[in-house]
Amino acid sequence: MTKALITWGGWDGHEPDKVAGICRKILAEEGAEVTVTDSLDCFDDAEGLRTFDLIVPIWTMSTTTRDRVVNVSEAVARGTGLAGCHGGMCDAFRDQVLWQFMTGANWVAHPGGDGVDYRVEIRDMDHPLVAGIGDFDVSSEQYYLHVDPANHVLATTRFPTVTWYHSPNGPADMPVAWTRKWGLGRVYYNALGHKANVIETGPAHEMIRRGLLWAAGSKAAAAAGPAVYEDFARAGSHF
């Protein structure tokens, strides 16, 4: 049975408890055993983290320790999947650069705030995580992120939508959803989800659903492949 850990907290404006509930329901409906906690103490147990097939962090901003981030990083590098959305994953633990490297980006702005009307454009239309999902419109925060160029981009959105300091730079297609690898582990991120209702139904919900299940299959995929785990973080990294 797939084992998933959902940990939620941080800024209440992102409704982390409700987002956690959506993720829990998705995973439970697929037969997963889901542990839900509103504490980061779970990140202290390095061995325990490695028993999970999937970790879903929902912690906008907040603070944590380097050791906790290393514990998550090592679990993912050994094959545990990591998946999340919006600020709950890529605007978390801002002083922990290893977290940003592992997740593939960090948030820097949402010009216009909440209620911006913008389009999500599917890019890799043959990828199973987005196949059959057409472009769609959203009214929410439009995330401007500093993004790892190694990410496999699934969907983008066009900036600028709202005139702001960045506008003179001209049009830019910003990733909205992507996959990446971290050691043997699968990582999935989706920038949607400022409020729980944004990802509760429709194409955004389906993207999140597929992303969670894909990341939850990380260990099985690693076991079937030729890759070998190495303890990179404890071999001299300066993170």
Describe the protein in words.
The protein is of the alpha/beta class and 239 residues long. The chain has a domain of 164 residues: Class I glutamine amidotransferase (GATase) domain (Rossmann fold, 3-Layer(aba) Sandwich), CATH 3.40.50.880. Helices cover 26% and strands 30% of the residues. It is built from 7 helices and 11 strands. The strands form 2 sheets. The protein has a 9-stranded mixed beta sheet with strand order 2-1-3-4-11-10-9-6-7, with helices on both faces. The longest helix has 15 residues. The radius of gyration is 17 Å and the shape is globular. The mean pLDDT is 95.
Question: What does the secondary structure layout of this molecule look like, with pairings?
Answer:
Elements (H helix, E strand, L loop, with lengths): L2 E8 L5 H14 L3 E5 L8 H4 L4 E7 L5 H12 L3 E5 L1 H4 L6 H7 L1 E5 L6 E7 L13 E5 L3 E4 L4 E8 L12 E11 L2 E6 L11 H15 L1 H7 L15
Parallel strand pairs: 1-2, 1-3, 3-4, 4-11
Antiparallel strand pairs: 5-8, 6-7, 6-9, 9-10, 10-11
Residues in helix, %: 25-40%
Flag low-confidence runs.
none
- What is the distance, rounded to the nearest whole angstrom, between the alpha carbons of the first and last residues? 34 Å
Give the strand content: 25-35%
The assigned CATH architecture of the domain at 3-107 and 177-235 is 3-Layer(aba) Sandwich
| Shape summary | globular
Helix-strand category: alpha/beta
Listing every helix as H and every strand as E from the N terminus to the C terminus, the arrangement reads EHEHEHEHHEEEEEEEHH
Q: What is the CATH topology of the domain at 3-107 and 177-235?
A: Rossmann fold
CATH class of the domain at 3-107 and 177-235: Alpha Beta
Rounded to the nearest angstrom, the radius of gyration is 17 Å
The chain-level mean pLDDT equals: 95
The number of distinct helices, counting runs of at least 4 residues, comes to 7
Main sheet summary:
9 strands, mixed
